[in-house]
Amino acid sequence: MLGIYDNEMKLEFVSKSSNEAFARISVAAFASQLDPSIDELADIKTAVSEAVTNCIIHGYENTIGIVKVECKLKSNWIEIQVSDNGKGIEDIELAKRPLYTTKANLERSGMGFTIMESFMDELKIESIPNMGTKVTMKKYITPLDDKNNENMSIANQSKQKEGI
Amino acid sequence: MECIYVPQDKLLTIKIAEEIDENVVKKLRRKIDNEITRFMPRKVIFDFSNVSFMDSAGIGMLLGRYKVIRMLGGNLELCHVNKQIEKIFEISGILKIIPLIKDNEIYEYGGKNVGNI
Ligand SMILES: Nc1ncnc2c1ncn2[C@@H]1O[C@H](COP(=O)(O)OP(=O)(O)O)[C@@H](O)[C@H]1O
Ligand SMILES: [Mg+2]
């Protein structure tokens, strides 16, 4: 499996709502080897939760199917692919619009793709009606050194303010 | 989840203690609506201090509760929301109709715990 990436993993699970937490926690655990900040990790968890939930409630419409999550990482980024073999999306541009949902009756907000887009650095949606949907997301993680430098400069600034 | 009620103000505070996703909202919706119809409050506050995670399922759930509460003549506010969840509220624009209050002064009014749901 190992090729040009530093690490890879693959998860497959049955399309049950109770697996949403399992999926986002697993991906977060895998991503933690890049030393992400708490905020970066929270962004990843939220985006994975959105993508996996979509497979379960829209792709399979709560019937039984398999959801796949594949992660690849390299020095400062993680790529996450979430896919189903479900219903598919007719019009991807329309589906991406904020507040657009085909399940308003279930109190869906239509904000899933908007959240994935704003929490991750790249988002690609591929779908074929009646074949399935694949969402690929990528996030760059600020290397630990830069984070430390940032913290140092914040600390220095506040010291300067305090006149230390 | 802890429910605190202040009768003289008809103020109901619900301390949600869950990771809010699609799986959890089904149960949450039912429990919260039960409390709302039980007290018919003038104001409802959802306290998020024990919510460590929420995705867009939470937005749908909150808008749904907002509609129920408004229909019964009450208002809905939120408090103690963490930074990540606040980002989700901001993206969705929900704070325009369901405001975030900075400090929940409920205990000063002598609210009582009326049950854990
Ligand atoms: N995996 C999927 N399979 C089929 N349809 C999907 C999938 N993901 C998203 N969609 C479609 O895109 C719409 C928008 O998705 P999203 O932004 O997550 O909002 P919501 O989930 O609240 O409806 C959904 O209502 C659905 O019609
Ligand atoms: Mg969604």
Blueprint (SSEs and pairs):
The complex is a heterodimer of chains A (164) and B (117).
Chain A: E1 7-14, H1 19-31, H2 38-59, E2 66-74, E3 77-84, H3 92-96, H4 112-119, E4 122-128, E5 132-140, H5 144-162
Antiparallel strand pairs in A: 1-2, 2-3, 3-5, 4-5
Helix pairs in contact in A: 1-2, 2-4
Chain B: E1 2-6, E2 11-15, H1 22-39, E3 43-47, H2 56-71, E4 75-79, H3 83-92, E5 100-101, E6 112-116
Parallel strand pairs in B: 2-3, 3-4, 4-5
Antiparallel strand pairs in B: 1-2, 1-6
Helix pairs in contact in B: 1-2
The structure holds adenosine-5'-diphosphate and magnesium ion (MG).
The site of magnesium ion has 4 residues of chain A, from helix 2.
Key terms:
heterodimer; A: 164 residues; Heat Shock Protein 90; five-stranded antiparallel β-sheet; 5 strands; B: alpha/beta; Transcription Regulator spoIIAA; six-stranded mixed β-sheet; globular; binds adenosine-5'-diphosphate; binds magnesium ion
- Ligand species: adenosine-5'-diphosphate, magnesium ion
CATH architecture of chain B: 2-Layer Sandwich
Secondary structure tally: strands of chain B: 6
- The CATH architecture designation of chain A is 2-Layer Sandwich
Strand order of the largest sheet of chain B: 5-4-3-2-1-6
- Specify which chain pair forms the largest interface: A-B, 26 and 22 residues
Helix tally of chain B?
3
Contiguous low-pLDDT stretches of chain A (5 residues minimum) are: none
Under the CATH scheme, which class of chain B?
Alpha Beta
Tally the structural domains of chain A: 1
Percent of sequence in beta strands of chain B = 15-25%
The termini of chain B sit apart by 5 Å
Rg from Cα of chain B: 13 Å
